[in-house]
């Protein structure tokens, strides 16, 4: 796990808002940073590597496949997590509890 993922996991693993998060969850040939099974919600933390080379195209392909499986994708910039992990965690929980 990257540093932003570790910082976020330290908060999400406590199941804020009674939402159960899974980390490094495999689905098909992919491994999701975080996943909420009950909501079929994938959460990906994107660092600068996601903007390089063919990575944007691979991310798009992955997102399309996940959507075809009924899984919604929530992408969050790693810099946002580094700047305010608690704020990002609160936003994620809010998205989960509003569904």
UniProtKB/TrEMBL annotation:
This is Very-short-patch-repair endonuclease. Pfam families: DUF559. Residues 3-96 form the DUF559 domain. InterPro entries: DUF559 (IPR007569), Endonuclease_DUF559_bact (IPR047216), Restrct_endonuc-II-like (IPR011335). Keywords: Endonuclease, Hydrolase, Nuclease. It comes from the Bacteria. GO terms for molecular function: endonuclease activity. It comes from Sphingopyxis italica.
